[in-house]
Amino acid sequence: MESRFGRRRFLEAGGAVAGAVVLGPTLAGCGDGGTTDGGAKASGDVALPTYKPFDGLKPDLPGAESGLEPGFLQFPENAIASVQSPPLKNAVTALTETFATPPPPMGSNPMWQALNGALGAELKLTIGTDPGYPEKFATLLAGDSLPDLMWLPPNQGIPNVGPMLEAKFQDLTKYLSGDAVLEYPNLAALKPASWRTAVVNGKIWGAPIPSTPFGQVMMGNPKTWAKVGGLQCATADEFFAKCKELTSGTNYALEPAIINMLHMFGEWFGAPNGWRVNQDRSLTHLYETDNYKAAVEYAAKLWAAKVFYPDLNLADATPKTVNGQIATQVTVGPRATADFRAADPTLFVDTLIPFGHDGKAKPVYDMGYGTVGFTPFKKTDEGRIRELLALINYLSAPFGTKEYLQKNFGTQGLQYSLDARKNPVLNSAGTQQAPGLVSALQIMTSPESVIFNPAFPEDTRKIHATEQKLLENAMRNPTAGTYSDTSSKVGTKLTAAFRDTIVDIVTGRQKIGAYDEALKRWKSGGGDKMRGEFEAVLPAGVPVTQS
């Protein structure tokens, strides 16, 4: 079963879906290393939870610390229990978000009721939607009674994260740091890189929500690109020529999501993933580099050639990519092939591997953050804390376990059946009851991600191979896992304003000279302050960026 996320939101975030579930779009997250130098040092010194991988299952295709995701060609025939007893004796309230259509309420949703039965008590979810989640979060935060759990979104502009956590939520460090986490084996199976997301001011505030570590990719319909020798290219000029050849009448080479396309071009021109780390450990932002400015000029050249689909308000290019009207679009990670398979079972889309713009320069591939935040607990007593941790441990059960099946597919015979290869497949009832509920559960709790597409196991092999190619030029955002309060407060607004100017330049409404003026506004409006805050908490182990 696949979790659906709002395409504009996850693409703008540049990152990935909570959960290791099935191939699908993803949402990016970022961490918080503390709001002061002292907080940053404390965060660096905290003992992260001991990592003990779940050893009950062996993937068909192994993963790696580089970010390569393990692949499964089918669901394990005999699912293993990862917990020994129901975690709850008392009802739990939680705030989360869904990026699918909201599910039927608990009282009329048998899948939700069955999950409650497995948990031992009711899990009462308040489910926000996109847009509007930050407002719902703020309203509950200001009230007299917080839910037991509140998913903290990493990219929706919630300010003053450190002080808010200290004032309202439970420090979980003593329950999760070091070997203490081993009491909760599914949480111990979360990687150290995931846990850094949940460390603020030297304390652990919740279990992280891992997601695919892969960021945006350009995908093309191979049937369309076969007309020009295929999607893969060696230079930007070759790509430009192919785009012009593919564009005629009502057919266009590129979807109209200019900022996302520009992200891809920036990789070919060597633009950094967010920030560039200089020799003196100072930071240079993406917007400040000649690489990104050159990519903007290249995008303007493509727009002038009329190879972009002209309707900038197109919400989803997928149907038009499937039917060949649009040749290529940007999505998150190579696992997003499932979106196209769902629309056309005969179509396995190609993923463009980044190349140097002139055939000589070194390209980059921007990795995502690999998490979508964490879920803190409201302040409470030790017994309740341990009950909530047991709940999160259940809901973080790894792929292939009985708990994973219950959370993601429901009950066999009611919400799902087994196909000929004994993979779980939602039936008509499950299709109605599951998507919104599973999306809401995944955004607040998740195991580490895997590659799995039960209907097309060979896709798993192809995606695994594509991930290996992308990793050859992988670049991670050096500030991932750290925190800038200025970025949290005004970063979204500054980015939106700068992007507005970029779109105007690309579409010919403004000249390239407007770029420098927009950059000055970005710097004075908070960009320079963000830089200083990120520099103060930049981990010592982050390498200098090779430009």
Describe this entry's structure for a reader:
This protein is of the alpha/beta class and 547 residues long. Helix content is 38%, strand content 12%. The chain has 21 helices and 17 strands. The strands form 7 sheets. It has a 4-stranded mixed β-sheet. Strands 2-1-3 form a 3-stranded parallel β-sheet. A two-stranded antiparallel sheet has the order 4-5. Strand 15 and strand 16 (424-426) form a beta hairpin. Helix 20 (485-506) packs antiparallel against helix 21. InterPro entries: TAT_signal. It comes from Kribbella sancticallisti.
Write a brief caption for the model:
38% of the residues lie in helices and 12% in strands. Helix 11 packs across helix 12 and helix 20 runs antiparallel to helix 21.
Low-pLDDT parts are: 1-38
Assign an overall shape: globular
> Which structural class fits the helix and strand makeup?
alpha/beta
Q: What would you call the quaternary organization?
A: single chain
List the keywords:
alpha/beta, four-stranded mixed beta sheet, three-stranded parallel beta sheet, 21 helices, 17 strands, 12% strand, globular, disordered N terminus
Q: Which helices and strands appear, and what pairs or packs with what?
A:
Elements: H1 7-13, H2 37-45, E1 92-98, H3 110-119, E2 123-129, H4 133-142, E3 149-150, H5 161-168, H6 173-176, H7 185-188, H8 192-195, E4 199-200, E5 203-204, E6 206-210, E7 216-220, H9 222-225, H10 236-246, E8 252-254, H11 258-268, E9 275-277, E10 283-285, H12 290-304, H13 318-322, E11 326-332, H14 337-343, E12 350-351, E13 365-366, E14 371-376, H15 382-395, H16 402-409, E15 416-418, E16 424-426, H17 428-433, H18 435-444, H19 457-471, E17 474-475, H20 485-506, H21 513-536
Parallel strand pairs: 1-2, 1-3, 8-11, 13-17
Antiparallel strand pairs: 4-5, 6-14, 7-11, 7-12, 9-10, 15-16
